[in-house]
Amino acid sequence: MTDAPVTAAILVIGDEILSGRTKDKNIGYIAEYLTAAGIDLREVRIVPDVEEEIVGAVNALRSRYTYLFTTGGIGPTHDDITADCVAKAFGVPLNLDQRAVDMLLMRMKREDLNEARLRMARIPEGASLVENPISRAPGFRIGNVIVMAGVPAIMQAMLDNVVPGLVKGTPVTSEAVDATGVPEGAYAAGLKAVAERFPALSIGSYPSYSASGFTNQIVIRGRDLPAIAEAAIAIRALIEQLRAGAERPAS
Amino acid sequence: MTDAPVTAAILVIGDEILSGRTKDKNIGYIAEYLTAAGIDLREVRIVPDVEEEIVGAVNALRSRYTYLFTTGGIGPTHDDITADCVAKAFGVPLNLDQRAVDMLLMRMKREDLNEARLRMARIPEGASLVENPISRAPGFRIGNVIVMAGVPAIMQAMLDNVVPGLVKGTPVTSEAVDATGVPEGAYAAGLKAVAERFPALSIGSYPSYSASGFTNQIVIRGRDLPAIAEAAIAIRALIEQLRAGAERPAS
């Protein structure tokens, strides 16, 4: 564990997410996972299966954050070009990797290891492998970039395998105050005053809306537990005071 | 409608998405909506509630794509800074807009229009407003940037109000071939050959995995309907031929 902030970005690779045909299930999962591990997710990008877009995004994000996690594009078909792009971004060769071949052989016979399947064993030079207990074709880590599958069950298993080996910071703690019934516009000024008293905390107000109307949550996030507790007390007092007052519009 | 490709990006603004506490429901919805409307979604970014990150992303994305859609950060609380950032990105003043004030007055009394609520009526100079039938605080459009709420029901209503006025291209059509039971690695070579015969189409293979094993879908996307039909026939023939052959490993 380190005191310096440990940061991360996610790069989701895939036309099927951008077309809306497949709904991404990985971003929210990884976000929650990294937050719990003490790694601050700072940016996410989704790009199509286009080499220059992937290479550009890998280089932009790996230089800005402690870690970059990619999902998607590591299967055996022609549209799976993530390994090629990551090798290109690092300027290293992409060779058939015997360790990866051995992993594939745990699940299939040598005679079934055709050219397409061997694509999944091409790993950028210098990368370590990330095991895939489900379909065996591995992910990999090169430098600060961790390349994972797009299929959620496989991605989740890879995350379990790779995160224990990463540098982590102090996890962010959050505390939520339910402000439902008090409109955001009524507590905004008081909330801003609390936020100014605790500059090291991140305090946000999150409305949601359903057929039964608005509900609001105020969330305090940070690493200073006494400050979080103190801010929560101040915010609860503010909400209670307003709740006791007149009814007002819902936002 | 235009023959030139009409492109778009989405910028999701919000710490709560990056922390994983709130799971984004807007990206997939907008992606599907734009695809149906003939607008190609090419990139998505998620950034925190930090001015320089938002301004940087707005400028990067608005210069690259026909349209940029933003979600989040237009409420009355201190963490709602999207309008400020978009005004800054365009280098225009952010003034109290009487049209927006009138919209807020449809839902609340003048005496309830406090400073925080009036924040929601600050609109970059030169922007047109996007109506919000639910809570009235409007979105806006300035240049090619469309600024919407983060609450899904409100965002969806804003999209309905704004998309009819946009330039659109020929919608992309897609056809899916179910390849379940035939592993990706078995059809990858044949699929690549079909993809090479139809360079104007985008052909992808999408495995999913559940407790009952892998299912694979091959999706053909493009604007040339006869070519899509021809490619689908070729891919179905390939899959049927392999299905008739020996059982093989599942990927």
TrEMBL record, chains A, B:
Top-level lineage group: Bacteria
Xref: SUPFAM superfamilies: Molybdenum cofactor biosynthesis proteins
Cited Pfam families: FLAD1_M, MoCF_biosynth
MoaB/Mog domain mapped to chain residues: 9-169
Entry protein name: Molybdenum cofactor synthesis domain-containing protein
